[in-house]
Amino acid sequence: MRETRKRYRRHHEPSGRKFEVRLARHGGGWFGPTPWSGRRARRGDVRAALLALLAERPMHGYDIIQELASRSGGAWRPSPGSIYPTLQMLEDEGLVTSEERDGKRVFSLTDPGKAEVETRKERSGGVPPWEFGQGGEGVVQLREAFFQLGAAAMQVAGAGSPQQVKQAAEIVAGARRKIYAILAEA
Q1: What's the CA gap between 19 and 88, in Å, rounded?
Q2: Contact, 52 vs 128, CB < 8 A?
Q3: In CA terms, which of 24, 28, 113, 165 is 20 to 30 Å from 9?
Q4: With a threshold of 0.70, does the pTM exceed it?
Q5: How far apart are CA 119 and CA 111, in angstroms?
Q6: Where in the chain are all domains bearing CATH 1.10.10.10?
Q7: Residue % of the chain over a pLDDT of 70
Q8: Alpha-carbon distance 49 to 177, whole Å?
Q9: For residues 138 and 126, what is the distance between their CA atoms, to the nearest angstrom?
Q10: Under CATH, what is the fold of the domain 43-133?
C-alpha cells in the first residue's frame, strides 16, 4: 500500500516563532480521515463503476466523471487520471470498445463486457459501486451538516470571545453525546 503524504501548515505562536501543525493525511480533514472525504477508490471500484455505467449507454470519459459525481451526491469524483487509464485497460482486455464521435472518444461495452457486468452484479448483490453502504442520501446530508457545523465552530474560534468559544465547545460536545446516543439506541 502506498504511503500517503502528509500536509503541513505553518502557524505562529503568540511569540512570533513558527511551528508546524500536522493538519491531515490525504483524504482527511481537520478532524482526521472521514468516510466521505476525498474518497479514493480502489482500482476495482473504478473498473466496476465504468462497466456499470457503460452497461446503461455509451459514454465518453468526461460524461463518466460527471455521472459518478452526480450519482454519489458529489462524494466521489474520480480524476481523469483514474478514469482514462482504466478505460484503456478495459479496451485492451476486450471488455469495451471505443470510437470517435463528434471529436470525442466514446466507449461502449462489448459482449464479454456485458457478461462481466452481470457477474459483478451477482457478486455485489446489485449494489452499484458509487453507493457507499447504508445511508445513501443520508450520508451526503450528514456530510453537509458536518461541514456547516465545522465552519460555524471555526468562525466562533476565530472571532468569538473566550466565553463564546467555551459555549460553542460545550454545544459541540453535547451534539457528540447525542449522536453516540443514536447508535446506543440501535
Answers
A1: 46
A2: yes
A3: 165
A4: no
A5: 13
A6: 43-133
A7: 70
A8: 37
A9: 20
A10: Arc Repressor Mutant, subunit A (1.10.10)
